[in-house]
Write a structure and sequence with these properties.
single chain, alpha/beta, Aspartate Aminotransferase, domain 1, Aspartate Aminotransferase, domain 2, seven-stranded mixed β-sheet, four-stranded antiparallel β-sheet, 14 helices, 40% helix, globular, binds ligand C6P
């Protein structure tokens, strides 16, 4: 059975809105996805029924809230098939998850001169933390170049590997090109040299089934708000063997075992990395989003979105002057494009006037823009609630806007 998109759309109240008198066509899902009613209601339910600080109180509500937060951890564990819930650390988002790894991994596993491999297509969130560590820990950054069609190649990664390489940090899906990187092969390559891999799954975990055990993945980072969950919550998956070796990232609250003014001992995993009051309302709502995705089925979601992406690419290519950025065959849910010499921002504004929400600019990937020799792109990004009719509206909108220049 295929997805019943008409019924799915009824779960997302925001999609029925009009913008400037036109039906909203929301194609900015790579920036953030909309939320189904069950997620919105979960937030209300937690605040209305079990709200209390977790892990602290002996009282009834605190026990329920703690149970809800820990159940959410197990839901996330199941979703990515982690071996243990100790390997699931709640953070504020993919950005914080990567910052956690960069800080704690470099501090405990790297010496000055050691090397971290990243790629040209990384989001700033997987570039800048390593640059900060370059200043603090003295690590060097090696960058995998991009091939013509926007892909990275295994042999280019292997070329950069040396006896000083400590980590490969790579995005699963590029938020600009939509390219799906061969993370299984990259992880395997790293392991042949005893090098762990951090996968930035911010743009993949909502589109592509991920099994961290099958992948033998060392670290995986993602955000709740890009997978139909609330903002302000994220996940770092880390293999227990690595997390055990890494020192805490932030200090205070739940991450301690015992404190005196002379010395503090730290809590066990995963609490060692969760300082302060965690977003236990957000975690419950994220778990609800995960259940929603699981109910639809990621395989069905993937196949629906792949068809939509193909349809969009074929239709957009019919527009005169259309240039699609990133022509790899392995793509997921994102199309970046330029039309003639039209500035993406100008085109984006005109589309906005037609009720069509796309993103314009460098998409927090300026080094990629430099490598491509462009300033920015227009980007349409899809979710399972988008339709071919919405793609038609985009194509018509872009065509109309292009004629205005
Ligand atoms: N990309 C986009 O419109 P946060 O902000 O922490 O939830 O996610 C950061 C992040 C990390 N990696 C990748 C590949 C991403 O795409 C993002 C967020 C958004 O493309 C906002 S810039």
């Amino acid at each position: 059975m295929e997805l019943n998109v008409e019924a799915i759309r009824r779960d997302f109240p925001i999609l029925t809105q009009k913008v400037f008198g036109k039906p909203l066509v929301y194609l900015d899902n790579a920036a953030t996805t909309q939320k189904p009613l069950c997620v919105i209601r979960k937030i209300e339910e937690v605040y209305s029924t079990i709200n209390a600080n977790i892990h602290r109180g002996v009282h009834y509500l605190s026990r329920l809230a703690t149970e809800s937060h820990e159940n959410a951890r197990e839901t996330v564990q199941r979703y990515i098939n982690a071996a243990s819930s100790n390997e699931i650390v709640f953070t504020s988002g993919a950005t914080e998850s990567i910052n956690l790894v960069s800080y704690s991994f470099c501090r405990s596993q790297c010496q000055p001169g050691d090397e971290i491999i990243i790629t040209t297509m990384e989001h700033h969130a997987n570039i800048v933390p390593w640059q900060i560590q370059r200043d603090i820990s003295g690590v060097e950054i090696k960058v995998v170049p991009l091939r013509e069609n926007g892909e990275i190649r295994l042999e280019d990664i292997e070329e950069l590997i040396s006896s000083k390489t400590r980590l490969i940090a790579v995005t699963h899906v590029s938020n600009v090109l939509g390219v799906v990187n061969p993370i299984a092969e990259i992880i395997r390559l790293g392991h042949t040299y005893n090098i762990p891999t951090l996968v930035d799954a911010a743009q993949s975990v909502q589109h592509i089934p991920i099994d961290v055990q099958a992948l033998d993945c060392d670290f995986l980072a993602f955000s709740s708000h890009k997978m139909y969950g609330p903002t302000g919550v994220g996940v770092l998956y880390g293999k227990e063997q690595w997390l055990e070796k890494m020192p805490p990232y932030r200090a205070g609250g739940e991450m301690i075992a015992h404190v005196t003014f002379e010395k503090t001992t730290f809590n066990e995993l995963p609490f060692k990395f969760e300082a302060g009051t965690p977003d236990y309302v957000g975690s419950a709502a994220l778990a609800e989003a995960v259940r929603y995705i699981e109910k639809l089925g990621l395989d069905k979601i993937r196949s629906y979105e792949e068809n939509l992406l193909r349809y969009a690419a074929d239709r957009l290519m019919q527009i005169e002057g259309m240039q699609i950025i990133g022509t790899s065959q392995q793509k997921s849910s994102v199309i970046s494009f330029l039309v003639g010499g039209i500035h993406p921002y100008d085109m984006g504004l005109l589309l906005d006037g037609m009720g069509i929400a796309v993103r314009t600019g460098h998409h927090c990937a300026q080094p990629l823009m430099d490598a491509l020799g462009i300033e920015g792109t227009l980007r349409a990004s899809f979710a399972f609630y988008n339709t071919e009719e919405e793609v038609d509206a985009l194509v018509e909108g872009v065509g109309k806007a292009a004629k205005m220049f």
